[in-house]
Structures
1.
Amino acid sequence: MRVLSGIQPTGPFHWGNYFGAIQQYIELQDVADEAYYFIANLHALTTVRDKDLLKQYTLNGAIDLLALGLNPEKAVLFIQSDVPEVSELCWLLMTGTPMGLLERCVSYKDKLAKGLKADAGLFAYPVLQAADILAYDADIVPVGEDQLQHIEVCRDIAGSFNHHFGETFVMPKGKVLDQSARVPGTDGEKMSKSYGNTLAVFDDAKKQRKQIMRIQTDSRPMDEAKEPDGDVLYDLYKLVATEDEVAAMAATYRAGGFGYGEIKKALAEASERYWAEVRERREEYAAKPEVVREILAAGAEKARAKASVVLKRAQDACGVIGY
Ligand code: AQP
């Protein structure tokens, strides 16, 4: 089994990124035959238009993944733009991709609805994502629920290329975790950087506590019993508290008579404990950026070796080499 996934360096990673995607990266690196994980800086260019900031987020993204447990001995970690084969493959795929397929993509439509200016890069984002996946013959792509549609688009693109030019690409499958496929943000919507509702993984405990205290709750009377599932505070608590604590919290909800302030306090405490170790580990990596750059260079070399074989296969299939 070959696993691949990417994450955009558009800002500090949040709980949605970790529990939806990164946690799967770490688990799968132990069982996959090959695992490829990359920082998607070319994708990030569709939103981050500041050179220094993009570089900073890119290196920070790699540091974050390492601190969270990505092991370069088990997985190939690299930066998207260090594998130019993928951009070449993207063009081959672009030529056969119907406009309608991209126009139906929810994340594109959402961004338009939020007033983001649409450029060709944002529109064609799923094609570059398809190239990212197909270039490594990936079977499994661990993601959050919001990315499943893009993986379907990738399958459509690969299927139509295979149909037209003969079997070239491996068909990938998306993989989501049932319990954290869609982590809610501080307003109850999907946690997302562009909604400004995130809890960042690496914020210090004090800042995080402040953000947790600001989480929006409903205004029902405090002595009323409540089903815990679907409540933002409880759903977030489930991610960072122990099994016993979660069971006790569920009982508290069902008994009623609690205050949201107490629950927020419990959530802040569980969060502080949950992230303490990785926050320390992050400081160690952040102090040696040259080591991280070496890991990325070695990763890029391995990734290019794989992607160049697949690119050649695709070029050969559609007749742009060997004339
Ligand atoms: N709230 C979430 N719940 C579960 N999974 C999530 N992911 C993102 N938000 C949630 C997953 O994280 C991985 C990286 O996604 P990305 O590269 O699209 O990162 P992002 O840009 O940080 O995601 P955002 O915050 O949601 O960004 P915008 O606001 O730009 O759309 C993916 O596997 C994603 O599913």
Note: The pocket of adenosine-5'-tetraphosphate is lined by residues 7-8, 10, 16-17, 20-21, 40, 143-144, 146-147, 181-183, 190-194 (CB under 6 Å).
2.
Amino acid sequence: AHRLIIDTDPGVDDAFAIALAARSPEVDLVGLTTVFGNVALDLTTRNAQRLLAHLGRVDVPVAKGAEGPGRAGDVHGEDGLGGQALTLPENDRLDHRTALAFLADTVTEDTTVVAIGPLTNIAEALESGVRFERLIVMGGGLGLGNTTERAEYNFWSDPEAARTVVREAKPIVVPLNLTHRCIADTEFLARVDPVLSNLTGTYRAYLSNRSENTGIYVHDAVAVAEAILPGTLRTKVHSLDVDDEGAFVAGNHQVEVAEDTDWPALRAFMEQRLSV
Ligand code: BDR
Ligand code: CA
């Protein structure tokens, strides 16, 4: 099994991503680092712990990272997980290190890091000299946004950090263009762990008010799938940069962008791993 760390802001699709990793024997989930994002840091951190408890994985350490505003409570629910009564583990102690220190201590040459929230922790780690051999980032959109017309939520939440990561960390980027084709519809949700499906109420209501969508996007789980089974996503190198709004623009930095996947196959894989 290869080592995996997820940097996350749970978040409903983050929950699906964490569950996928926790239930996949191909990877050894060595920790979660948390960041503000969908909701504020105290909530995303608590949500990471609640999820691990539900998944029977309180062995996985949680290290708390960067603070900032949580501005997607309308999508993910005020608590970030659709207002569901997931309980905290009895021992809810966090790792004694900050996310930054945890990454510095724990990222090795054979560790994959998947970043599925704002990139603040990852950019700080880069700046303090952490080297990422394999980094997969969910974020950005090519000519496509979900927060402004041009910017995707994770990049928009900390554009400067997104720029640092895109310029310096050689990530595989999983953009909205791909994740918008990866929808967990009601049929999918009916087959997976009901605790996970129950998290999706607020998110489904939000999307169905704005589109034909009756399911949810599983953005973050698509990025984690690539860590579990490398080659799941087909990538192409683009010359890009990130502007002050957090939008991808043409630039001189070579970025490997995930462009395509066999969604029916990936969907079946997720369904199998996420059902109980
Ligand atoms: C990204 O933003 C968050 O709301 C989701 O969890 C995902 O990481 C999609 O734009
Ligand atoms: Ca996320």
Note: The longest strand covers residues 233-242.
